[in-house]
Amino acid sequence: MLRQLIGPDNMIEFPNHSRSYDRTRRAVRFWGHDSAIEASFFINEDALKRIQPDTGYDESGFLHAFDFNRDLICAAAAKMYVRGSRGSYDLVAANF
Fold first, then answer.
1. Spatial contact of 25 and 42, defined as CB atoms under 8 Å apart
2. 23-95 architecture in CATH?
3. Taking the mean position of all CA atoms in its chain, how far away is CA 30?
């Protein structure tokens, strides 16, 4: 299903389902892979609240909102990704 959202021509994939909550950035961090290149992505709390308004406002709630909306988030991350441009990307509410 994710491949359909991103499209077959996109160069980044999200095979690693690991994610973690970064208290300093107030965001969930996840990773994408473009061949051997790994890129970090962060989706901030406001973006998670926008896509899932009933989310709990704590680490557990934000991780649950990320897991529940993973396909949507990864599709937005793929649109933002530019090969070789930088090591990390920030998704904000305006991306949704």
1. yes
2. 2-Layer Sandwich (3.30)
3. 6
pTM as predicted:
0.86
Give the side-chain half-sphere CA count within 13 A for 80.
22
Buried/exposed 25-58: b ≥16 CB within 10 Å, e otherwise: eebbbbbbeeeeeebebbbbbebbbbbbeebeee
Give residue 42's Cα distance to chain centre: 6
What ranges do the domains of the chain cover? 23-95
Segment 40-87, tens digit of pLDDT: 999 999 999 999 999 999 999 999 999 999 999 999 999 999 887 777
Edge to edge, the sheet with strand 19-22 lists 19-22, 27-34, 37-44, 88-91
Query: For 2-31, what is each residue's pLDDT tens digit?
Result: 444 444 456 899 999 999 999 999 999 999
Please give the structure tokens belonging to residue 17: 């389902």
- pLDDT, residue 7, reads 45
